[in-house]
Design brief:
Shape: globular
Strand order of the largest sheet: 3-2-1-4-7
Radius of gyration: 20 Å
Largest sheet: 5 strands, mixed
Number of helices: 11
Distance between the termini: 26 Å
Bound molecules: zinc ion
Order of helices and strands: HEEEHEEEHEHEEEHHHHHEHEH
Structural class: alpha/beta
Strand content: 15-25%
Mean pLDDT: 95
Length: about 325
């Protein structure tokens, strides 16, 4: 790449979500030139959403004062399960009627730009790896602690996909045999104990079971709340919130030990709503990790908070497109 191409070319990163579609132009260094967020309105079904996404790519490009010739291609992060190699969304819990939708081909036909796609959690992890909390390491795993738990595994710069292209669903690691029912149908998944949504749900359930908490009033009034208020209650010295937060950190530490042995990464990055707790999250996970970890070898990953916030998805999608461009593999099978 010439100097001009380094600074004047952009990949389009698209983060397709059930509520919001984010579109950004990102340069080779991982810097966002321009970004916009749109309401997905997914109840319309797939076709109008894809039509809009193609139009939004044009809008963002025009708003950034960038020409079509300066775009190298599009990367899309989508909910799954999906096939990155074929560019097909098999199904998505929060995208109604998306069944075996050829998303990459549809976007490519509408925009004339080469398009690559992957799981949204994978690409958020890739974004942090490429331009955020993992940019100085080669092996990184990210857990995104939101409504559920998304994860991505980066090994030597490659996203791990596996034969069924669905590897790295670490939120559905079973951490409690015969435990809480998960939205996926399994019991005892990490997500059922340690996602932001389930931490708040467990506090509500404990209060309904008769435990007292400074959040009891909200539960009695039926006011919904998320992990942010649970974290606030922990800081305010609420014993129930502290216990459930500590249990979530304990299960995350179990996941971190398993991640250590499965992938041996340099770093484990925590992202999503719960990661806003910062030290209250990492220090407790670290404490439990040290109690749980083996003593045969000090191959311990560093546990850190993500730095890109809501931009990780679009930056990672664009970074994945840049990688496809540089390696000439827009239509190639995944290598990992
Ligand atoms: Zn599950």
């Amino acid at each position: 790449l010439t100097e001009a191409e380094m600074t004047d070319s952009y990949a389009v990163g698209v983060d397709l979500g059930g509520t919001t579609v984010r579109v950004a132009l990102v340069d080779r260094a991982g810097q966002i030139r321009h970004e916009a967020a749109y309401s997905s309105n997914v109840e319309r079904g797939p076709e109008p959403v894809i039509e809009d996404m193609a139009r939004w790519v044009g809008e963002v490009t025009a708003a950034a004062n960038v020409t079509r010739e300066q775009l190298i291609g599009i990367g899309i992060g989508s909910p799954g399960p999906l096939s990155p190699s074929r560019g097909v969304v098999h199904k998505a819990a929060n995208l109604p009627d998306w069944i075996d939708i050829p998303l990459s081909r549809s976007m490519q036909e509408r925009t004339g730009l080469p398009t690559i796609m992957d799981n949204d959690a994978n690409l958020a992890a890739y974004g942090e790896f490429w331009a955020g909390a993992g940019k100085d390491v080669d092996n990184m795993v990210m857990l995104t602690l939101g409504t559920g738990i998304g994860a991505g595994v980066v090994i030597k710069g490659e996203l791990l996909h596996g034969h069924f292209e669905n590897a790295g669903e670490l939120g559905h690691w079973i951490v409690v045999p015969n435990g809480r029912r998960c939205s996926c149908g399994q019991r005892g998944c990490l997500e059922a104990y340690a996602s932001a949504g389930n931490v708040a749900r467990r506090v509500v359930e404990a209060i309904r079971d008769g435990e007292t908490s400074i959040l009891s009033g909200l539960v009695q009034k039926g006011t919904p709340f998320g992990s942010r208020l649970v974290v606030q209650a922990v800081h305010d010295g609420d014993p129930l919130a502290a216990r459930i937060w500590d249990e979530a950190c304990y299960y995350l530490a179990i996941a971190c030990v398993n991640i250590q042995h499965a992938y041996n990464p340099t770093r484990i990055v925590m992202a999503g709503g719960m990661s806003k707790a910062g030290d209250l999250l990492t220090q407790l996970v670290q404490k439990h990790f040290e109690l749980l970890a083996w003593n045969l070898y000090d191959d311990f990953p560093e546990i850190r908070i993500a730095v890109l916030g809501d931009d990780a998805g679009v930056i990672g999608a664009a970074g994945w497109a840049w990688k496809a461009e540089e390696e000439g593999r827009w239509n190639a099978e995944p290598t990992c």
